[in-house]
Every structure is written in structure tokens, then in C-alpha cells.
Amino acid sequence: MRRKYAKLSIGADVLQQIICTIKIRRSPTRHDDTIDFRPIITRTNNILPLSVVAADKGYDSEENHALVRELLHGYIIIPARYEHVPIWRTHGIYRK
Q1: What does the alpha-carbon distance between residue 74 and residue 91 come to, in Å, rounded to a whole number?
Q2: Could you read off the pLDDT of 6-35 as tens digits, one per residue?
Q3: Which residues are CB-neighbours of 4 under 8 A, at least 6 positions away?
Q4: pTM of the full predicted structure?
Q5: What is the mean pLDDT of the chain?
Q6: Dihedral angle computed from the Cα positions of residues 65, 20, 42 and 95, in that order, rounded to the nearest 10 degrees
Q7: Distance between CA 53 and CA 90 in Å, rounded?
Q8: CA 36 centroid distance within chain
């Protein structure tokens, strides 16, 4: 039997110390953090314009990088999920 726990994702402005959005879900439904990234970042951008977005390895995908770079015109800092993979084997424009 799998244990259930609460998964909390937060969008916050670090400079002014304001929590803008919160997403709470019951887990483990999926282990993919990227499904929470788009609604959190777009709602946070509606409250305060974003210039730099920092996230952990769970949010590393080409769609997330493209969202922040192209639509929100910001800079994104997410470490590579698989750092041992060579750059020439990494897919996507922004993840390289």
C-alpha cells in the first residue's frame, strides 16, 4: 500500500518576500513536477512581472524553459536533471 502525502508548490517573490501562488495536491499521483509549473508561473507573473525564475531539477523540461524565455521574457535557472549526459545528447534549444 502506498503512502499518501501532500505536495506543495509555491510561487514567491524572493526580493520582497511575498508568496504569490500556492498549489497543493495529494501525492503520489504522478511524480512529474512539471504539471504544476505552468499554472504557478503564469499566476505569479500576473501578480508581479518575473525577471528571473529559479527552480529545482524536478521542473527541468524544454517546455518550461520555453515558457519563461519566450512568453514571459525572463531568465530561467534550473539545473539539468541528468548532469552526466553530454550536451550534444541533450534535447532542446534552451536546455543546452
Answers
A1: 21
A2: 888 899 988 888 999 998 888 766 666 788
A3: 26, 27, 28
A4: 0.81
A5: 85
A6: 0
A7: 21
A8: 7
DSSP E strands in 1-96: the ranges are 5-13, 18-27, 52-54, 75-77
Contacts of 62 (CB under 8 A, 6+ apart): 91, 92, 93, 94, 95
Q: Where in the chain are the domains?
A: 5-89
Tens of pLDDT along 59-86?
Answer: 888 899 999 999 999 999 988 888 777 7
d(CA 94, CA 92): 6
Max Cα distance, the chain (Å): 44
> Which residues have a Cβ under 8 Å from the Cβ of 60 and sit 6 or more positions away?
78, 79, 80, 81, 95
Q: What are phi and psi of 10, to 5 degrees?
A: -125, 140
Tell me what the mean pLDDT of segment 48-55 comes to. 91
